[in-house]
Fold:
Amino acid sequence: MNKRCLAGVYFIFFISSLSLVVANNLTESGSPVKRIDHILLTPEDPRGLYDFLTEELKLPVAWPFREYEGFASGGIFFGNVNLEVLVMNQDNLPPPSNIAGMAFEPAGSTEEVVEELKRRQIAHDEPRTYEFGLGQSRIKMWTTTILKDFIPGSVVFFCEYHPGFFNPPAWRNTLQKKLKEIKGGPLGIEYVKELELRVKDKEKELQKWQNLLSPDFFSSDGCFAVGDGPRLCIVESDKGNIHSIKIKVKSLDSAREFLLSRGLLGQDRRHSIKLDTNKTFGILFEIMEAE
Structure:
């Protein structure tokens, strides 16, 4: 994905978005990653998926779906992470029906993160800072640092939010209160438990992710618990992509009943349910009961 395409995505996401400001200082003894900040989706029908999640599932709007020249984007809050539904009418984008990537909240400043990436010999693009305003009134909004070739067909990057632009913690608390007030919507959603990454060479990919996430986040079973956000679970497959989003709900029985009543039920197992991907525009959501 080229920087021109990403610039449009980032502008819509961050100009109205809501994640945590980085406050920690990064040292050589810690991972440059603090948590997964948001997940990018490129479904078959972005507006359709946005409407489904906000109207059918009643989830809080993180930022409204808006159309601009060449792209459109909207955000939905899932308890511990935002999902960004987007469309870009440009080349070099991930294919439709894909979970297109993820953004990390860095554990320190961009300068510290870049130094740590160099020390770990992790290939990355030069950081790019986005500003808003005119003349002397311009303010720094965020800085992105894209990792090279981390997930085939997807984009993985760091995003540092700059003080004075936005107050993400306050907005995040507001969204959490909204989700609690509606009791997680008709599915009773608690949070996103994990992203399933399918890879062709699990051992090689585990080493790559371990290099990025250690020592704060260590995997003994192919899954990395990345801060208080979703886990990353790596599964060997004949394809390489971000395969699915796994969501914790309060009651699997209640969720199953709702999905059946609305014709949304896909594969049904004893301990998990998959939503019908024909109704979620190609994005695979799997739900399971909260512990």
About this structure: The longest strand covers residues 189-199.
